[in-house]
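Lecture notes, continued. The same structure-token format from the folding unit now serves as the input rather than the output. Read the line below as a description of shape only.
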């Protein structure tokens, strides 16, 4: 996601931004805001978390409440000692929803009523008095995975599969959000057209999410059971509360209808990732989220991944599909904290570089 940085008033570099401790190794505060919990952690420049906690979002409520709590957490942990002296050198914030990348206001977000249309970057700088960055949570997670893989100036997409389908994008080493904060809306990419295209939750038709988002998958599963001769119709376990995990369990038990629906899901996903690949040509695409059908190290997850790869290769130029590494994400729930902190670090470095340039070329 596109990010930006603002220095606190009077500060020209991270080193001069008034740490709460004596000089030490730079450390960055990552804050990952969700509808249920706010996660926060102190992360060093290599992406290692030295301390972390989470608080219910309904307790902290507003951006001001979250930032004040997070700064107290950071100051307290650094003062207690984390095995070595650290200096808080920047703060990164990851938020869900549509983040305007020019004003850093959330245009749309679910379950965060006190956060809509607030100038998040300004409030963050005011409360934290450090170089700061605000980034969409999908891009924060993608940036963390990108850093873990040491991809440098290469590009990565992190596709998150669940009720919706999101995608964090890092292009040539920088998070990419787009001008309207909507880059990476892979779930709303059209993969089917015409009268047969399934309606999407957004009001349009034929979007990936209506085929490969969890509700779309379960809907296809119901249809498949109804049509499959000998299946005995829609089974009792399949209802609106059925999880992707249950679907995977039945597939693992040899249910042919479940297996076929998972294969078709891989096909739809492979087509959409193929389109993404043609556009961005990333070195790596990772799959994460709740609907990876067991994921890494499982037979079903591997089958799903291989079918996704096959469909990517079938629908892309050889040079794109052949070289693209497709695998499962590995960072899980910590990716938002780490990514937010590392984006703050990237911004602090860019700020230092531009200050140095200005001094050399006044
Ligand atoms: Zn849609």
């Amino acid at each position: 996601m596109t990010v930006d940085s603002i220095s606190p008033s009077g500060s020209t570099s991270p080193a001069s931004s008034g740490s709460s401790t004596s000089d030490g190794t730079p450390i960055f505060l990552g804050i990952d805001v969700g509808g249920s919990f706010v996660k926060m952690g102190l992360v060093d420049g290599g992406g290692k978390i030295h301390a972390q906690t989470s608080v219910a979002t309904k307790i902290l409520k507003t951006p001001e409440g979250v930032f004040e709590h997070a700064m107290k957490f950071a100051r307290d942990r650094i003062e207690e000692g984390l095995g070595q002296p650290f200096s808080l050198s920047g703060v990164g914030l990851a938020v869900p929803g549509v983040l305007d990348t020019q004003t850093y206001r959330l245009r749309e977000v679910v379950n965060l009523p006190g956060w809509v249309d607030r100038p998040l970057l300004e409030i963050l700088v005011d409360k934290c008095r450090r170089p700061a960055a605000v980034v969409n949570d999908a891009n924060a997670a993608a940036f963390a995975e990108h850093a873990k893989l040491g991809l440098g100036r290469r590009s990565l997409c992190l596709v998150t599969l669940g009720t919706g389908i999101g995608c964090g994008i890092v292009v040539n080493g920088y998070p990419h959000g787009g001008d309207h904060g909507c880059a990476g809306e892979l779930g709303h990419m059209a993969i089917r057209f015409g009268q047969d295209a399934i309606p999407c939750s957004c009001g349009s038709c034929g979007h990936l999410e209506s085929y490969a988002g969890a509700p779309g998958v379960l809907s296809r599963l119901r249809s498949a059971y109804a049509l499959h001769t000998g299946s005995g119709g829609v089974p009792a376990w399949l209802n609106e509360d059925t999880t992707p995990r249950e679907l995977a369990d039945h597939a693992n038990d040899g249910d042919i209808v479940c297996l076929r629906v998972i294969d078709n899901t891989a096909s739809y996903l492979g087509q959409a990732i193929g389109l993404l690949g043609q556009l961005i040509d990333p070195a790596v695409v990772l799959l994460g989220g709740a609907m990876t059908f067991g994921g890494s190290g499982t037979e079903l997850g591997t089958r799903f991944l291989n079918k996704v790869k096959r469909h990517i290769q079938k629908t892309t130029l050889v040079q794109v599909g052949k070289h693209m590494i497709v695998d499962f994400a590995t960072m899980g729930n910590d990716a938002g904290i780490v990514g937010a902190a590392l984006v703050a670090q990237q911004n602090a470095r860019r700020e230092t570089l531009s200050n140095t340039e200005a001094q050399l070329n006044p």
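Point for the exam: Confidence is low (pLDDT under 50) at residues 1-21.
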